[in-house]
Write a structure and sequence with these properties.
Elements (H helix, E strand, L loop, with lengths): L4 H6 L2 H37 L86 E3 L6 E3 L19 H12 L5 H12 L5 H12 L4 H14 L3 E11 L2 E10 L2 E7 L4 H8 L6 E4 L14 E4 L1 H12 L6 H23 L5 H18 L8 H15 L17 H16 L6 H19 L4 H9 L12
Parallel strand pairs: 3-6, 6-7
Antiparallel strand pairs: 1-2, 3-4, 4-5
Helix pairs in contact: 3-4, 3-14, 6-13, 8-9, 8-11, 9-10, 13-14
Length: 476
């Protein structure tokens, strides 16, 4: 219905009220439609930023990268001479010069010695077989059967399971799967090639289930690692997508320099975070900008937000702006980078504590002035001001300038999750909740052994035998 001004003047009061009600109804319908479209856009943006689990629909990000180490990135080191162990067989061979004179000019040579090594395994690795001849007897009266006992022989090793593989082979195969990312089938094949010992995929699965179930020796070790997280001074955490029984779930990781603990849960809320760190956590939590860490239950926990994420958000906004609208994001980036550089100078030993704190306080005041409460004309800049300003008011942006033992980025957690992300990409994750529990237990133990400088397979074998988690190796 379309009416001009003159026609509206001729209408009665009731007719005008009817038109108003009709227009209000259309406005409500349009508002609901806009709200639905907004929610749909929000879901699509969230799905685009979420870590993709295997077999998920939708095209991934396509970005070509040049292979190899980036120029100027990372330290380049040569391979070191292997450390000789007591069990190693070392063959020494002297390689003398054929002549002590220079073949070019005939002059004398300054003779030196260069050490070259080739480390290898024997062509046919030896196997150790323990053969127990167990006496057993049956009572002719009651029919009860008894057998001899030996400390190295489990009581249930009889009948169909009388012939088993040892803990060293089992630990090596499980380390290949849960630490190195090989499939169980490939791990069993590799064990056969390396040692000549045949072990089936089902045997590995059943043994891992037995070790990681409630009351199992590795489950006790895993519980101990979880308790260590709650008592740590600084913990970095991150999460990635996972699948349990084909359904979407989350793989969460909690990391310190000597500890890595994983857990698989259906949801990633603050409840799952508190489940790991404990309600009385008194350390510092390094996180990204996930909403799970903004809950009231975590208000009393000191947090350091990842500066890499903040710088990325600022760069994304800056590149879409022109003129004075770019100044806000650009100036904030410069202040955050100055804080990063100041922290690196102090950690490298090139700046004392007093000078570090003095300059740190100036940067905190500068950042506070840039994030002061005000209204900006640009909506994107206002969103950045409100979001980063809220974190700064809570002391979660420059916390590392007060506690330099805290890393300003969440890179430790992202690096710690990388092997699990690779395992997710080459597998179908966990078939059920039991498999998810086995993965979080085995992955936590093997990753922690690696961080502490121990041989993963050897350390895992010791834990399977009932040993305790070893501390960090000397020099780590």
């Amino acid at each position: 219905m379309k009416l001009d001004r003159d026609e509206l003047r001729e209408l009665s009061k009731d007719q005008l009220i009817d038109i108003i009600f009709e227009l209000a109804k259309k406005v409500d319908e349009l508002s609901r439609l806009v709200e639905q479209q907004g929610k749909r856009i929000e879901e699509l943006e969230r799905a685009a930023s979420r870590s993709a689990a295997p077999f998920s629909k939708g095209e991934g990000k396509k970005k070509k990268k040049r292979p190899g180490r980036k120029k100027g990135k990372g330290a380049f080191t040569n391979r070191k001479e292997p450390e000789v162990r007591p069990s190693d067989v070392v063959q020494r061979t002297a390689v003398p010069l054929g002549s002590k004179t220079c073949p070019g000019c005939g002059g004398g040579l300054d003779v030196g010695v260069e050490v070259c090594t080739t480390i290898d395994v024997p062509e046919e690795p030896g196997r150790r077989i323990e053969r127990f001849e167990v006496e057993s007897g049956t009572c002719p009266r009651c029919g009860k059967r008894t057998r001899g006992e030996h400390p190295g022989l489990p009581r249930d090793q009889c009948g169909a399971t009388a012939h088993r593989v040892g803990d060293n082979v089992l630990a090596l195969a499980l380390a290949m799967h849960y630490h190195s990312g090989m499939t169980l089938r490939k791990a069993s094949e590799a064990i056969g090639i390396l040692t000549g010992i045949n072990i089936t995929q089902s045997a590995l699965t059943q043994r891992a289930k037995q070790l990681c179930r409630g009351g199992g020796v590795l489950q006790k070790v895993y519980r101990g690692l979880r308790d260590e997280v709650g008592g740590s001074l600084v913990v970095n955490t991150d999460d990635t997508g996972w699948r349990t029984g084909g359904k979407a779930s989350y793989l969460m990781g909690f990391f310190t320099p000597r500890l890595a603990v994983f857990q698989v849960r259906e949801r990633h809320r603050h409840q799952e975070v508190v489940e790991m760190i404990g309600e009385l956590f008194g350390g510092i939590l390094g996180t990204d900008r996930g909403t799970s860490y903004e809950a009231e239950a975590l208000d009393g926990v000191l947090q350091q937000k990842c500066l890499s994420h903040l710088l990325k958000n600022l760069s994304e906004v800056e590149k879409t702006k022109r003129g004075r609208a770019r100044c806000f994001a650009r100036d904030l980036k410069e202040t955050l980078r100055c804080g990063l550089e100041l922290w690196r100078e102090h950690r490298a030993g090139r700046m004392g504590w007093r000078k570090f704190r003095k300059r740190g306080k100036k940067l905190e005041e500068q950042l506070g002035h840039q994030l002061r409460d005000r209204v900006l004309s640009d909506a994107d800049n206002q969103r950045l001001l409100d979001g980063i300003g809220k974190q700064h008011d809570r002391g979660r942006v420059f916390l590392f300038l007060e506690f330099p033992e805290v890393e300003p980025t969440n890179n430790r957690a992202e690096r710690g999750l990388r092997p699990a992300v690779i395992a997710r990409k080459v597998s179908q994750c966990s078939k059920n909740a039991t498999g998810a529990g086995i993965f979080e237990t085995m992955k936590s133990i093997t990753a922690t052994l690696k961080l502490r400088g121990h041989n993963v397979a050897k350390g895992l074998a010791g834990l399977i035998r009932g040993g305790s988690m070893p501390p960090a190796a000397a020099g780590r």
